[in-house]
Structures are given as structure tokens and as C-alpha cells.
Amino acid sequence: MAETTSRPTPPQTLDPDTLRNMDRYWRACNYLSAGMIYLRDNPLLREPLKPEHIKNRLLGHWGSDPGQSFLLVHLNRLIKKLDLNVIFISGPGHGAPATLANCYLEGHYSEIYPDRSEDEAGMRRFFRQFSFPGGIGSHCTPETPGSIHEGGELGYSLSHGYGAAFDNPDLIVAVMVGDGEAETGPLATSWHSNKFLNPIRDGAVLPVLHLNGYKIANPTVLARIPREELEALLTGYGHKPYFVEGDDPEVMHQQMAATLEQCVGEIRAIQQHARDNNDPTRPRWPMIVLRSPKGWTGPKEVDGHKVEGSWRAHQVPIADPVTNSKSLKLVEAWLRSYQPEALFDASGRLVEELRELAPKGARRISANPHANGGALCKTLDMPPFRDYAVDVRKPASAYTSPTQVLGEFLRDVMRNNMTNFRVFGPDETASNKLTAIYEASGKTWLAAGDPGDADGGALSADGRVMEMLSEHTLEGWFEGYVLTGRHGLFATYEAFVHVIDSMFNQHAKWLEKAKRELAWRQPVPSINLLITSLVWRQDHNGFTHQDPGFLDVVTNKSPDVVRIYLPPDANCLLSVADHCLRSRDYVNVIVADKQPHLQYLDMDAAVTHCTKGIGIWDWASTDQGAEPDVVIGCAGDIATMEALAAVEILKERFPDLKIRFVNVVDLFRLMPEHAHPHGLTNRDFDSLFTTSKPVIFNFHSYASLVHKLTYNRTNHENLHVHGYHEKGNINTPLELAIINQVDRFSLAIDVIDRVPKLRGVGDHAKEWLRGQIIEHLNYAHAEGIDKEEIRNWTWKS
Amino acid sequence: MAETTSRPTPPQTLDPDTLRNMDRYWRACNYLSAGMIYLRDNPLLREPLKPEHIKNRLLGHWGSDPGQSFLLVHLNRLIKKLDLNVIFISGPGHGAPATLANCYLEGHYSEIYPDRSEDEAGMRRFFRQFSFPGGIGSHCTPETPGSIHEGGELGYSLSHGYGAAFDNPDLIVAVMVGDGEAETGPLATSWHSNKFLNPIRDGAVLPVLHLNGYKIANPTVLARIPREELEALLTGYGHKPYFVEGDDPEVMHQQMAATLEQCVGEIRAIQQHARDNNDPTRPRWPMIVLRSPKGWTGPKEVDGHKVEGSWRAHQVPIADPVTNSKSLKLVEAWLRSYQPEALFDASGRLVEELRELAPKGARRISANPHANGGALCKTLDMPPFRDYAVDVRKPASAYTSPTQVLGEFLRDVMRNNMTNFRVFGPDETASNKLTAIYEASGKTWLAAGDPGDADGGALSADGRVMEMLSEHTLEGWFEGYVLTGRHGLFATYEAFVHVIDSMFNQHAKWLEKAKRELAWRQPVPSINLLITSLVWRQDHNGFTHQDPGFLDVVTNKSPDVVRIYLPPDANCLLSVADHCLRSRDYVNVIVADKQPHLQYLDMDAAVTHCTKGIGIWDWASTDQGAEPDVVIGCAGDIATMEALAAVEILKERFPDLKIRFVNVVDLFRLMPEHAHPHGLTNRDFDSLFTTSKPVIFNFHSYASLVHKLTYNRTNHENLHVHGYHEKGNINTPLELAIINQVDRFSLAIDVIDRVPKLRGVGDHAKEWLRGQIIEHLNYAHAEGIDKEEIRNWTWKS
């Protein structure tokens, strides 16, 4: 510890009895935390500790547990005293023992998992399951009641906390931020979330920065900068920091009790002022810095090495009690220092006077319904999406921006659900043409205003569109929002959704466990990711903005929880969006562009097509239902347009060619039925793609993804996929398509090359097609020409 | 602008002539920036502006250009005055016109691209190429001389800057941080890089936070918090901020001149003190906040909307000059306001008195060799990697931690290269068993020390191991370090390398352009990513730590620049690491675990195997070179061990079964030769995997990736891949393998199912194998057992 001095005379907030009992409760937490790590038997130490009582493999993280439990004990006091509505988010990585201990002492763990009962046998099972095969993990996994934040990957505790607080005016979200995770980028910027929290309509977030001092193997940066630098930093983040520092439990209890009461008092005063005066002016929210020794109350020294207050306390402080009798003695002495016999009664249950300290029922942090958000979830009041349909009398005859149409629908979803629906986007909601939403609600903005903001700024303290230039923070908010039972949509540039690859992975993993294994967790609204500003219209932004690879990341996750849709036009997008917004427990990825695109299907046809997820477009086919010469498949808007244009070229040149045109909306239709619930049977797949005819498939993303999904289909060897292959710079849209060979000309050439009956007879056409390619490239480089270039095409048939 | 007041009486640092000429130079920059966006002809406005002089499609970002050029002009003055060695990093996204203009005015652009000469014709081409098909992008792309930071994806300017400054004691890296990018997580935490910069041996980073006020469509957070909050924040980050604020160029020039001189003076004083006294104590480094109107000097108002100082100045301030004559007039008036006729001579070259303002030769920011780091790159002095070999007398008879062995090699690479090699890792170098490196050099640490640090802390001001709990910052440092010509290795947990997916993507794109299209960019050392703490040994950390999907992201990038290696043991890892560290212009991904693993190949065999990248292990095969009944393939350490164990089971049960055992180190060997330079020909592939026999392939990562690479191989329909499929929790290692079916028993069952001659006769064995699976699962759940579980296996044959 750089500084462990405590304030000399802390206020005496706690009377001696309360203090003593709170300290005992805290000792019970610490006992349980250590017990989880070490014991497979003899849970109450009713006999001398023997090697066979110790787990074969010691796993878990002790270091941050005592500090976390310390906060929990004090939160409990205030919850009871002030009837607060509090949830707790545990940021410091593996510190689940603290949360689990608290949950068990509150009785809620045993309510959910009856065999881990409040008695000796239950405690044995409770200890044993921890970090044990077939048991539970060492983070606050979905199995942990009261948790909405697992924290296996660090950095998202604060943004999750804010997401939970939005639109929950009575909720206080206490977020313990680890000083390790505080070094991550996502956490570092998420402090600014306070510029997006409205004290009138939203709840409060109380960050508690835990200066535990060390990570796995290093000191933490924030624990090793001067106190005044840290204070400046937190003040700069917009907070009013209070420091609770030291290592003497008695002094620390008084300090924490007084400080927490001060903070909650300020929070209530801020909210009351804002609500009484309808004044959302951004306040300076309080926060706490808790500087306590890592592994507090644990072994001070082992084998001559300092442990308490050192990185050596991070995981298992004493490594070898099974084989080393001296270590065994140390572990026993440590565990007995908490005096379990004075904390638990004869049956092994927490003694009555300590049980009294915990809140009751749904006020218990472990049982707060906000942390099982599905239970509180209200179904969205959805406007009929058909009302927003684009009029399509003839396929491919007019251009519309799909996201612009979607924006109108989302506007009314917003209007109908002004307390439980939000839209998220990194400064791009307007760029992504979802501007209509602002008619229903502006952009949340609690930072300073400017007279110029009136001019198109759409900023407002009670806006429901969340824009900050941090995909991490937005995704974190959104996850916190859905995990507490509310709904939303996150629109982001396709190339930069990779910024949140790892967050997507972690959320998908959470959902999978919660959905598949935990009946008590109610389904939560889906994460809806609208991936837009797509690769094929990043001809102007260039190579950095061209990356459609997020879909590859998505397809690696469990088929139980991921869905991918590539609606080819606006009406399909409406149908898909309606479906996704109503769904639960998925991550829905919708790929749809913001630029004006050709429209193909009227609303009825779109609904039918999207319901099937994949289908033959008869109007674009020439096989008259018979076995075709070639199947042209496609998925994605530009891919579809170019495929249709190729059909038109081919029809004109080869009127007898039998083409079947298949469009894919629901990408997982391509997978086998045993591999994904949306997968087509082989029979259905074969009936669409034939068992032997060439299939030319034009794909939105990297071509290999289609192969990854279809490699074991009957006709796979005849499947030839065109897609993005990392060619791009500043181009015209058609040029970009050409250099990646997803353009009409390249597709038509490929068809000619693959269809036996066109061999030879197609040579002249191929020559013409190659000429077209060269002509277009030359023209683009000479004249530049604008993005209207490929808009002079409509469907002739 | 929230506040645009300037300090009333700025110091008169510049004499009137200098001030006037610097302002003219700045106007030349601004003229060129605007010209790039608008003009395809009439570059010097020598005739009245007509619609045909304007580009058909107006692209580019004006908003931050004038502020950036303003800084550049002032940097130039000090470079000349003090003979400074400066590179510039442009953080604000699309603001390349400023960098390009400066480069062109310095003459360096014309030296590299002679047709974009310093005359009217050259200027026309220079303008026209910008954001034009076949031309260059609107970021500081690799085509931009003087740039090591493209900035298409935001957030990495500061970490790139620090990476460039490490081990370059005389270099000053001026980093313009956009207030938009400042909201990203990676940027927000990268401010703390100053705790890792040693004033004795490293150069300096001068951050200039550009409070430009707006992003695409929103104000920025940092521009809308009170001045004292911002000052506190930057102070909290460890800087001493100086503010340059206003909009009156004359006043601002004096302010910036004085402030920049002050800052450079402080930097020099800090360095001199540290170097004279050998005192690396972390100083409070200066920085600048430049608050200037967005689109400064551009149109004040268009169609009644404020433009200068508003988000409307972000991109193209006047949209329709081709079709709207009023707009055309506005554009012309704006461009003429810079008085190009007074800036460029008759030939179109910058007038002589202004040329004088630019530094000369390699001191020009655009020509500083550090920004073409390959030119300065010194080859690593490599110790012979064979010296670190593990003694392997019999395959699979002893266990060693591969990364521990690698650590010893890296220790000596470090010792031999103490000024141009660093190792990066997020608090995990020790956890990843690379501890030996600390014998050569400790962990860089300039934050406060503590007496306890002496106990195993390995912290040191001149350490060369970079550890901070931010993968973003580490990757940013590493990229900055290699792009300026130095070498390194980044070791990180497999699951969390996804945190930098998007950074990997962007760096790969940079490399591809630089390597394929820009002969003048010298090859730079590769980014070497050691992916460790692998999925199969995350049985204790659980599901969140199990994600081997980074390889899918990597395989989407250009085959010119990505390489993936899965060395099966320590000797192979040494061979691969030696190869990677010597390479240039790649991202090498090495997948190798930290836990003890069986060793298979002696050093000679390892070198031969790694050189081929894929090969038959005769000692594990039973086909005696004849056509086998089955091929067992594998890639990855645990995958290899389980595959070998399966072979042993099969050999014992079915002595006549002809098994061929193929191990893959170089994953891209699986791809066709036309798709990747490492790809095998079909002939070679077929000779390994046969054209008709079942192939059971045990893969480290998600199975579908192997299908993605091999789908068009002759024998693909008989290829059956086992891999991770998102099943995991707290397990024993063997249990984790079993539930994902990459274990020996499941593999053997699959072989029995696929080999025709075992049909029926294998039923008894299958029953036994299924019994083994159940027995192991039961035992694991009952006893827990430790990670030694699968270490009681050695190769019997």
C-alpha cells in the first residue's frame, strides 16, 4: 500500500453494537469467500483441518473479496435504513466469492439452489461447487443471483451500471470498479457516462473505485499516482470523490458508514432537486475511492513474503496446504481467525442477530428483480410495421434508403415506448439515416449546451437516442439496459462493429448459459445490432471502412443465441426489425445499408420471404419451376442488386438459359438443421440449390463464410461464392464491386464459365462483359463520377 | 464554440514579418485542403470558378484541417529554430488534407510522387487524386509520406505516438488528439502511457488535444465540460495542460508560438534533468489544448446555417456548387479569401519566402525517416534458437511449458537488442510463464514505487517489458514501435485478443497497402502476437476465457500479410518464433500454451517440420508409407496430444489399422496455393490427406475454420473436423476436451465410425470408449482432481 493511513477521527456513525455486528457479518462473508476457495469438507471447521478437507485444485481469487464484501455489508445497512433499491455490479474480475457469500448469507442462494441450503451440508456443497468441475465459475457468472455482470473480460462494469440505471429512477446501481479493470480503455471512457444520465428520469450510479493496489502481477496505475492526481482525474470525469482509506477495520467501518451515507444523501438531494424543479442540469455525482489492502484480513505473510497488501494475495494466498503441513496450519489459523463458531449456529446457519442485518425479500441485493431483468420486462408496444411499407409496384424500379424507412418505424416504436426503449449509435444515427427517430426523441445530452445546438442538434436532456463516440460504452449501456429488462437497437458502421467483437462474444456466452441452463433467469430482450454503412458503399471512405467480417465472429457463437439477417430491401428490413425487436435472448445482427437502394418486394412478399428466410424469386428466375441450368444465389443488398443485373444481362444474351434466382435473408438457413435451429434440411436445401447444377452465389461479406456454413451440403462442390476479398480504396461503387468480382459483369462471366451449355457459345458475351469492366474502370478513373453511377439501372423484365 | 475568447494580451513571440509569413503559410495549407476537396481543375483559380472545375462527387473532411495545419505551421517554426526531430500523428479521423497539404508544401510529396509536382499541373493532379477513384483516401493512409497513423478507425493516435517515442530519445512525437476520438475507450486510457515513458532513454510525446467542438453530428464531450473539469482531467492524466483558445488568427498565432515554445522548453528541461542526473522520476509532461472553431477560416454561414464553429463544417461545408450558382460563388469567395495568387508563384510553386519556413531534408515532418521506419530498422541480433531446445529423446514422454522455454529464448533476444526490442503483455507476462525475460529486463514502471516492489515485482524505470491492463494500449504501442522500425512480441490471453480485433484489422490493411503498392515504404518488422492461455486450459477460468475465434478474423485479411502458426510443442515454438521475429511486414499469430505439455520433436525434427509447415509424423503413423485406412490430422498442442492418444488407443485395439498421422503447424498450408502463398498445391495436399480416405482432423479452434480453408480440396467430403464448439464451464482439462469432442475417446469413436473396415468389428471398442468418457466425467465431478489429470499419459510405442 502506498498510503494506508486512516483519517484520525472518523465520525462515529455506527453505534458499538451495530459496528460489532457489521464486522461479524463481514467476517462471515470473508470466511465464506476463503472457504469457497479452499474447502471441500469440514465447512464450519468443526474438526481440525486435514488435507482431505482441502480441494485437490485450489482455484479462485481472494484478493478483492474482502473489499467487495466490505462495501456490500455497508450497502445492506443503508438499504435497510433508507429502504433503498440497490443492485451491485462487481467489476474486479474474478472476485465472485464476495458476491456469492453475500447472496448465500441473504438466504437467496438457497432459495434458488435448494441443495445449497443454509446448513452445514448446504454450505459444504456451496463451497465445493465453487470453481469445481460441474460447479460454478469464479466470476459473477449468470448462475450468480443478483448479477448482471460477469466480468470475465474486464472493462464494462460502469457502462453496464449506467445501462441498468437508465429509466429506473428509483434504482441505485453500486458499481465496484477494480483498479485493474480501470486501466482498460472501455472502463476509462465509461466514466463519461455521467454526461448521459438524467437525474429526473434515470436512477443513480454510485461508482466505488477499489484501490486494491495490485493486478495479477503488477501494481495498478491508479493506486500509484499521487492522491491529488487521482482526485483531479475523478473530478475531471465529473465526479465528487470521497476517499475511504486504511486497513483498521474498526476505523474503516466508521469511515465507510459515514461516507456511504453522505453519498446516498447527495444522490437523493440531487434527484429531489432535479425532480422538484424539473431541472436536469448535470450534477456532480458523488463517488467513493476505497483504498484497502489487497487480500485484507488474509494471511499477512507466507514463507517470508508479504501477502496481504501485495499482488501475492491476488489468487490463492497459500498454495500447498494439502502437501505442506505448515501451510495447512496457516490456512486453518486464517480461517479460524473469522471465528466461524460465533457466526453460524449449530445447524450451520448464520446466527439470528446477523441475519437481521440483511435486507428482506426483493430488497436483498442478491434478489433485486432488476438483476433478473426478464422478470420486469414489459413487452414493447409495437406499431404495425406494415404501415411503413415502401410502395413497390415493380421490382427494382425505384430507390429508397432502407435505414431511412426503418427510422420512421423506429420513431414510432420509440413514441409508443417512451420509458423502456432506446436507440444507441456512435455519433452516427443521422449519418446512418435514422434521423426520423429524432421526431420522437432527441439525443441525450447532459453536458453543456450552446445556443447553436438549436440548429439541427436534436440534443436534449430527456432524449432517448444515445450517442457517444465509443462503441464500447454504447454496447455496455445497451447490455445493461436489456439485462434489466428493457429494449433497444444499436446502429453502427459495419467496419467498426469489430471494436466490440469481444463484448459481443461475452454477451452471447452469458445469454447461452442463462437461456440453456438457468430456468430462474427470465428471458431478456435481444441485443439488436444494426450493421450499416456497409462495405459496398464505403467506396468513398476507403479501405479502413471496408470490413464485413463481424459475421464470421457471430457464427462462432452458440446457435441458441445468434441470428443474422441480410434483408435485401426496405420492406424486408421492416419485417426483420419487427421480428427482432419482439424477440428475447438473442443477439440479432441485421445487415442493412443507409444508401438508397433498389426495392424489390412489396410488403406481403417481403413478409413471406422473411418468414421463410430464404426463397426463390420467381419474377427474377427463368426456370419456370423446372430444373435450372444455373442457380444464382445472393445475400445482402448490393449483392442482390448485382446478381439481378447479371440475370438481366444473361437473359438478354441467352434467352434459353434457365436461371433460378435464390435470395437469402436469414443467413443461418444455409446451415444444416442439426447445426442451427434455423438450418434447412438437406432436402429443402437441395430443392433450392439442386444437387448438381452450378450455383453462383453473390455474398455481402467474405465469401468463405458461405462455404463455412454450407460445406457439407450435397451440391457444395458446385457452389461458387463471390464476396469481399480485401480489395478497396477510393472507388466508385461499381468499381469497388468489380475489383472484388461481385459485380454483374463478373457474375455473368462466371455463369458462362460454369454452365456447360454456354461453353463456346458464350465466348462473345464474355468478351463484351470484359469490355464493360474495362470501360467502367477507365471511366471511373477519368471522370470520378458520383455515387449515382449504379443507380441508372432498373429491372426491365 | 462554448468559449472563443482569447487571452487578452498574448506574448509577442513572433515578430510581425514572421507572423505574417506563418499566417500566409497556414493560408496556403488551408487553400490546398479546401482545393483537394473541391477542385478537379483550375487549381490556382487563375480563371473564374466554373462548375466543370468542381469534382463530380465532393468528399473529404474540412472541419479539423485548419486546426491541424495551424499546429503544423508552428511545429515547423520550432523544428527550424531548435533543430528538432519531430514526427506528427494526426488523430482526428479524416483530416488528411492538412497533413497532405503540409507534405506538398514541403516538396516531399513531389519527391515521392513526381507527377504531383510543385507547379500548376502537379497541383491539379494533387487535388484531383484526393478522394477520387484510383487516387488516395481521406485519411492519412500509407500513401501519405510522414504518416504512421491512418486514423480511419479512431482511438489509437496517442498509443501510436508513445510507441514511436520509446527508445528514440531525441524524437518528439506531436500527437493531435481529436476531441471525437478522445471519447473512445482506447484513447481515454492511452493518456496513462506517460507512466511508461522514461525521460532518459525515450523520446517525448506532446499531445495536442484539439477541441474542435464537434463530431459528425454532435458536440464532443470534452468541449462541453467546464474548463476546470477538463483541466482537472488532464492533470489527473498526469499532464500539465496549456490552453490555446480563440479564433482570431493573429492572436492565436502569438499564443501558439509562445505555448509551443514553452512546452518544447519544458520537454528539453525534463530530459536534460533526467539525463544529467540519471533520474527517471516521472515528470509532469506538458500538453496543449487547442480550442479553435471547427472549419476555422471556412464559410461562416451557408443558407442561414452557421457553418464555421458548427458540426456542419465537419465534412464538405458547401454541398452543391456544381448545380447551384450561389454555392459556386460561395466556394469561390472562400477559396479566394486565402489569396492563392499571393502564395504561389507563376509556375504554381509556393513562393520562396514561404518555402523558407519549412524545415529542410529529413527534418521535414513529411520526410522524417522515423515515419518510414523500415528505413531505420536494424536487424535483430538473434541468439541461436537451437540453444534453447528441449531434449526430446522419445516423443511424448515428458512435459514442458512451451512458453517457459520461449521465455528463455526471448530473454536472450532481449539481452542482445536492448535498444530496439520490447515485449508487451497485459499484466500477464508472468502468468504466461515468460518470466525468464525479467532476467534481461524488468517491467517498465514510472509511476510511484513501493518498498514491497522489491519482492518479485520486477518493476524498473528502464524495464523493456511493457505491461498495462489495456490490450488496446499495448497493441497501439507495439504498432507505433514497429512502424518506426523496431521489433517486439505481444503475448496475450487467447480469449481477450478479440479486444484488439479491429486494431489487428486496421494494421493488416495498412501493411497490405504499404507492402503491395508503395515501394518507397521500407518493410517494417512484423507484429508478432503470441496467443496463449489457450481455450483448452481455461478449464479453471470457465466459459468467458474460452474463445479461440481470433484465427477466423485473421484469415479474412489479405494473404500477403497474415500468417498463423500452431506449434505443437516447445521446440516447434522456438523455430516458429525465430522465423517470426526475423520477418518483416506480417502479422504473425503464434498459438502456444503456457501450461506444461508433452514434447514430441527434437530440435532437428522440429525445424524440418516447421519449415514444411505440415507433415506426416511417421513415428505416430502405422501406414508404413502405404495408402492408409484413415488420416488423423491435427493442429494445436492439446489437439495434437489427444489425436496421438487416440492413435494409441486405436493401435492397441486394431493392430492392422493403417493410420497416417499429419500435424499442421502453418495453418495456411491448408489453403489452396492460389489463395495463399503458403498454400499447398492440390497434389501435395492430396498426397497427405489422400483423395478418398476418411480424415479425422482435431483442431485447436472452431472446427468450421478448417472447412473454410479446405472446402475445395479433393477429399473435402471425407474431412471431419473436431474443434471447440462453445461448450465449457469449470471443467477438468479432459472433461473440457470431452464435452467438445476433441478428446482421445471421441476421436477414436469417430475413426471407428468412418473407417469401413471397422464397421461392426469396432462396436465393442466403441462401447468401451463411451464407458471411458462416462467414467472420466463422473470422476471429475466427484473428485474435482487437478490439472495433472491428463499428464499421466505418455506415448507407449
Q: How many strands, which pairing sense, and closed or not: the largest β-sheet of chain A?
A: 6 strands, parallel
The CATH class of the largest domain in chain A turns out to be: Alpha Beta
Work out the helix count of chain A.
25
Structural class of chain A: alpha/beta
Give the total of beta strands of chain A.
Answer: 22
Rounded to an integer, what's the Rg of chain A over CA atoms? 30 Å
Our measurement of the CA-to-CA distance between the termini of chain A, rounded to an integer number of angstroms, reads 78 Å
Query: What amount of the residues of chain A lies in strands?
Result: 5-15%
Strand order of the largest sheet of chain A: 12-9-13-14-16-15
Mean pLDDT of chain A: 95
Q: Would you identify the CATH H-level superfamily of the largest domain in chain A?
A: Thiamin diphosphate (ThDP)-binding fold, Pyr/PP domains
Tell the overall outline of chain A.
elongated
Layout of SSEs?
The structure is a homodimer of 797-residue chains.
Chain A: H1 16-38, H2 65-82, E1 85-90, H3 96-105, H4 108-112, H5 120-129, H6 157-165, E2 171-178, H7 185-190, E3 204-211, H8 227-236, E4 239-245, H9 249-277, E5 285-291, E6 301-302, E7 305-306, H10 325-336, H11 340-343, H12 352-355, E8 399-400, H13 402-416, E9 421-424, H14 437-440, E10 443-444, E11 459-460, E12 465-466, H15 471-483, E13 487-493, H16 501-517, E14 527-532, H17 550-555, E15 562-565, H18 570-582, E16 587-591, E17 597-598, H19 603-612, E18 614-616, E19 630-635, H20 637-653, E20 659-664, H21 682-689, E21 695-699, H22 703-710, E22 719-722, H23 733-739, H24 744-754, H25 763-783
Parallel strand pairs in A: 1-2, 2-3, 3-5, 4-5, 9-12, 9-13, 10-11, 13-14, 14-16, 15-16, 19-20, 19-21, 21-22
Antiparallel strand pairs in A: 6-7, 8-17, 18-20
Helix pairs in contact in A: 1-2, 1-3, 1-5, 2-3, 2-9, 6-15, 13-18, 18-19, 20-24, 24-25
Pfam families (chains A, B): XFP, XFP_C, XFP_N
Domain Xylulose 5-phosphate/Fructose 6-phosphate phosphoketolase N-terminal (chains A, B): 15-375
Enzyme class (chains A, B): lyase
